[in-house]
Design brief:
about 220 residues, mainly alpha, Arc Repressor Mutant, subunit A, three-stranded antiparallel beta sheet, 7 helices, 3 strands, about 45% helix, about 5% strand, Spore germination cell wall hydrolase CwlJ-like protein, Cell_wall_hydrolase_SleB, signal, hydrolase activity, hydrolase
Length: about 220
Amino acid sequence: MKLGFGRILPAVSLALVVLSGQAASAQDVLASRLGALLGQERQALAVIPDVRLAALTTLPPAAQRNVRTAARSVDYNNAYLTSLPTASGGPQWKCLSEALYFEARGETAQGLFAVAEVIMNRVDSSDYPNSLCGVINQGTGRKYACQFTYTCDGRPEVISEPASWRRVGKVARLLIDGADRTLTDGATHYHTTAVNPSWARVFPRTASYGVHRFYRQPTRTASN
């Protein structure tokens, strides 16, 4: 049987209306079910005290979640360090913390940060190992070759000052997490006022903090 064009259009229109009605009906059913489910959740949440609900839905500070923060400026004073939570970390953090403890724990806050900058700057330089532990332990075990005296002075590394350890650990954490390095102008060397190494007469001095003097390694002597 053949259907004329005039008969096809009404049939198609009727089919579309039926399908549209079925889709709308399905949507109404879904909306009704979701409404009922959300209504039950609202009733359940209503019995939870506001204080408890806030505690469940608020994230702790990033420092307490051990989340690394973006690079930022810091205050170079003891009050700022005291205000920070106790720091922790893995092997690289421990290496830097130990270096700061044995090399500069008695320094001012600026001096402590400056020593940390030197170590971080060496990690970034192609002239030195590319890790904190590698830089700090470079030459250890070879007479007159160690880069940091405490690693080859023959004395055991014993942490006997807990307060100083917490202080240096915070500095190490800040530098590893990307704190700005603005104190030493790219220095890669330092020494205390108790010594006068020969390279200090060649390298340009960039800063002085406490009993430490800081120097940047000249490009022309980078291979030395």
